[in-house]
Predict the structure.
Amino acid sequence: MSSDVEQEVRQEDGKPVLKNRYAVERELGRGGMSVVYLAHDRKLLNKPVVVKVLLEKQNQNEWVRKKFMQEMEALARIDHPGIISILDYGDLPNGTQYLVMQYVEGRTLRDTIPEGGMEMSRASNFIRQIGQALSAAHGKGVWHRDLKPENIMISTLAGGEEHVKLIDFGIAGIKDSVFAASKTNVAGSLTYMAPEQFAGQPSASSDLYAFAIVAYEMLTGRIPFPEDSLTHLASPDMAQVTPLRTYRPELPEAVDTVMRRALSFQPEARHRSVNEFAAEITSALYPRPATPAPAPVTPPAPPPSRRLFAGLLLAALLLAAAAFYAYSRWKPTPAPPAASRIALHYSMILQRVRDGADFGPPIRAIGEMLVEHGHKLAFEFQPAHDGYLYVMNRAEDKQSGRTTWVVLHPMATESPRLAGAAVARVPAENWFRFDEAAGVEMITVVWSDQPLPELDSLIQKATLRGKTAVFDSEDLVKQLTYFLGKYRDQVQVSKNEAAKQTELRSPKGVLVYQIRLEHQ
């Protein structure tokens, strides 16, 4: 063993320091092949890093050692913001290998998926990012082989945007690897494993299969096959995918069509790439209205002769004179008015707070906005006609992942009816305040020109906390989500900068619109 290796580790305050640089702090987790530690890079101002150490008991396993080095090779090949970066590697005095990698602050996708599935817009964003990251890996001849929610990190950037990063390439497959293993072992998580990977023949299409299961789980909170059975891995006759709409009826039918293809038993029946799948599934979630076919173009007729042209001109003049005479004696019936639209205007009122006291006058704002910690917020809604207004907020418990809906308007003692000349402030008194945790709030607005007995019935079944109705049962949450999904389209949005108002219009009698609020 070289002297360099002997100097790899020293103890300082009872904690190891690798290469006189990486100060190990604590264990983050362990699996069957390795253990992961949080450390700080002293050469980079104590920047947090991850040190992944091969378990000592695996030192004699040639396949495991080769796969450990292949993880380094895989990460060294790929340079993409959606994939964790490799920083360094080395050997401990006993010959155990370790890798130093980028530390990602955030939560795993597993901890992010709520019961019943995510909002479609959020899931679509994650699907797009995962597809881009996997495509970058496949472009370098690397396939992950263990894609699952636990190996996908979600971090929040400074502006509130959620960013995806793939981690744990510990059993990755690599084309033309310099550390080629002597044999192919069946490795991965059975729940997300493709049939050909289970048979010991993994490929890039195996990642697509796992990706589809992850997308399915993001949208429904469930997996597409029975959890206590592996029969779908053995035979195409048993690979029956449970339709997503079984768990989430508001999803478009096209989503199931895309998902069935991605989860085909035979790899050649699936999409050609992860990017193709990601594009199809996101398009299916938000279908565009069909564009009418252009009118057929009639080829121009050959130019008429002068005599014919003169005759046509005379006929046209006679017809015009006759039309003018007829019009002067008869007034046409006015055309029927265009189909009525419903409309609602809203503004956001922001009260800044400094040192616990209001700072300056309230600010009227439009559109989506970023709210700083401690500031207060209210909404003002002004309808263009009589109607019925509902305002709700969806909340997710970070510990349990459970979803609830809180009705912000109307209160239990109030009516949702709003006269055209009225202005509804929500909340009617006081303000909304945001807690210390940074995040995103989605405020859902429902506006209708007619009563909504279906929604009123759901609200009456909700739990009453003081004067506020709360949807806290899984069944009611699903029914409410289905109701909102029926109208969450065809909303036309315009902004009136002078009046500081956002105008919502819809050709339907009901509109559903979401207002995004980021707080930090």
